Each structure stands twice: as structure tokens, then as C-alpha cells.
Amino acid sequence: MAPMSDHLTPLRAVRQLRRVRGFYAVGIAVWAASTAWSAWQAPGSRQMWVSALLLVVFTGLLLTAALWTRSLERARPAKPTHHAAPRPRGARPGAVLRTH
């Protein structure tokens, strides 16, 4: 039987990946602005190429985090499963069962 905390791990991972996606999105915005600025100031300079490289890196990280989040969300069950005993046929919730 799986430990009780097994179902918490994907939930925590999804929350963490959502936070990280926000960080990567900010990184993309910063490096896009830096690349545009350095391309306008000194086209073809080393600073522009480093900014462009970091823009590509952050874009790849955001894409990876988004795909990983999507796969974790698909993998987790929609509803938690309960291991309750099945009810007898015809029984209603709250009904008293008579045994003679």
C-alpha cells in the first residue's frame, strides 16, 4: 500500500512549478527587454548575444516547466478515492438496516 503522503507530492510539485513559471516569465520579459535595448544600442555586440542566449534559456525553462506541470496535472486523479465499504443494494444513506 502506498504511503498517505504520496498524493501530496504531485500537488506540491504543481504549486512549485506554477511559482517557477511566473519567475521564468519575468526572466523572459527582462531578457527580451535587455536584448532589444542592446540590439538597438550596439547591434551584433557580445552583450546583445548574451542577452539573446539568456532569453532562449529562460524560454526553454518556461516551456519545460509548463509541460511538466501539464503532465503532473493529467497524472493526478480528479477526485480522491475513498476506501469505504460498499453499501448493500437498495440501501439509502441514513437508512437503518434490519437483520432478522
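The record above closes out task 2.4. Task 2.5 opens with a second protein, given below.
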Amino acid sequence: MISSGGQAKWYLKENPVKLNGEVEDRRGKKIHPGDVLNLAGEEYEFISE
């Protein structure tokens, strides 16, 4: 996906990213178990082990 903070900054400027249904443009946003991320037309749900 995105391997560095610099890439994330560029990606977030050019592409919509949603976290839990809301547009997110902060590259340092914390992700928690149960969060759902929509990125590049794909949906990812974060779970804990």
C-alpha cells in the first residue's frame, strides 16, 4: 500500500480516503480495532489478535 509518511502525505492530497465512513486526510491518525478504512476502492477492517 503506502510505505512512508511522505508517500502518505502525497496520497492523501490526491485520493479520497475514508475511515469509518468519514473522509480522513491526516497521515498520523491512529487506527483502532474495529475501524474500517476505505482506500483505493477497497475496504479494510482492522481487528485485534
